[in-house]
Predict the structure of DUF3857 domain-containing protein.
Amino acid sequence: MKYLIPFFLLCISFNGFAQAKEEYTFGKISQKDYELTIYERDSTANAVYLYEKGKTTFIQTTNSIVISTKYYAKIKIFNKEAFDVATIEIPIYNNNSTSEKVKDIKAVTHNGMQKMYLSKDNIFTDKINDNWSNVKFTMPNLKENSIIEYEYTLESPFKFNFTGWDFQTDIPKIKSEFYALIPGNYVYNRRLMGFQQLSKNESKIKKRCFSISGMTGEADCEELIYAMENIPAFIEEDFMTSKSNYLSALKFELSEFRGFDGINHQYTETWKSVDKEFKGDKNIGRQLRKVDYLEKRIPESFLTGVNNLDKAKEIYAFIKAHFTWNNKIRLFKDVKVKDAFNNKMGNSTEINIALINALNAAGYDAEIALLSRRSYGLPTKLYPVMTDFNYAIAKVTIDGESYLLDATRKTMPFGMLPFNLLNSYARVMNFKKGSYWVDIKPNKNNRVLMTMDLKIDENGDFNGSIKKSYSGYRAFDKRIEIIESSEDDYLEEIENDDKIIVNQYENLNLDGEENNLKEEFNITIESNLNKNLMIINPFILSKISKNPFQLKERTYPIDFGYPRTFIYSLRLQTPEGYSIKSLPKSTAFKLPNTGGNYIFSIQQKANDIIMMYKFVIGKSYFVPEEYPYLKEFYAQIIKTQNSLITLEKI
């Protein structure tokens, strides 16, 4: 909810405001806090925030209006593993004319009834670069079961630096509260991030709270109070995108400033205005108008004939072959398509705009799409925030089918994006009809097929062949692994990791990214099997040894990036003079909601053991509620893969 002040009050501002009720007295610790030795909601926690509060107000100084944020924290340190929590760093920003300031630092360490306060001599300022510094201090007399308290006030003259409040960190919090009093001259968009629920969400108008010396009248403010309780620590685990997508936080973006001179400054744009701006932008719109330049430089065969999928693939292959990516990612600066084409080297946007121009020169419907890499976070769909984007790709429509393309990687097949670009959705910039969102749908055929034919000799060693076939992202990843190392180094790593001896090796379709990559090995596996009773794990080269899901509870989604399938088949010829005493039991189980399945089958045929297992993750995205199923799914797979074959000498 936003409250706007009338036009005649735009030149008026801050006089005073009622203080928000404090829920703490600095230096006072309860007996309950002293006696706390473990956080019951998370017994693994090394520390816990007992209470945290921020209070942001706008105040008049001699020369300007500054945003003043008072911060307070009270933390129980359970053990030495959390001592680093007691080193506090406060980043401050400056430009050529002014700077943020930290003032009124107070800090104390409580050990029972003993208190030790922070000395001002132990507060330091470290310069990070020309624009950023850190105010830094470490709490004194730190011990296990200490309670630390500290507070400070950060004053910022930069109205864009009021960015919100972080409720969640890697330390659990019993309560975190944020209060703000925002004059009507400042209009901020706000959004709640993450998966934790607010325990308090209050907003009201505070009348006549804002004025400026020398000006008559008073204006209204919006008074905000937000709180969360029992906030779990955020623990990173496999299969996630940027943690900024999941951390519970309140984000503010300045939408409008109604100047004290009566002039309004609009900062949040509409997509219509963004489209218009980008159409004339030197790094985007003007570069997309180099169609004639590309038309004169691509093969003439691209300009004639039917515009089908095969010809689009040829244009895509031409651009990939022409350019070498300089490993630089640029979006809103340093984009010069002509220079990049002439130099046969360019940044990510130069290469992909060249691809768009080449496709349009040939008569295709190609557009630029903006997205955020997985490590950078998801763009908001609520309103345009252009700093949310950091990558540009191509989108082309052929016979009603849309394809998203990135030409920076020479081994990337047509219609696939690099893994770090599989981040939910992109914004397609159509300057004629208006921009729109498009979902990023990963390739579904991502498979590894391994076929093994092994024989156990009289010494208990395994000899035979392995054939592997890779498709989709599994093929792309394996091609990169092979190309970026010598064959000797590649095979040596396989021998070391899998404890095998590679006698012979060959790969097929290494350069044909549109086809499945294949590998063939002739191998020996030396073993120390007991010759009277051989106990063998049949999962010789494909065992999942560790469950990637270890958390008691995961509060954020599981994102595999793409569906995947692994199929393993084994023919194991047993040595003469041995009988097959026991085999594992065949089994099958699956995840709910078509999330995946696992099939394990094993049987005896004469003196051979025939085994097959199929492991499928059927979708790329799982909600937190599905985490227990995934965790148990992997646990059952590991249990199955610890099953053993027993051969007994006759």
The CA atoms of residues 549 and 632 lie 9 Å apart. The domain at 271-439 is CATH 3.10.620.30 (C8orf32 fold).
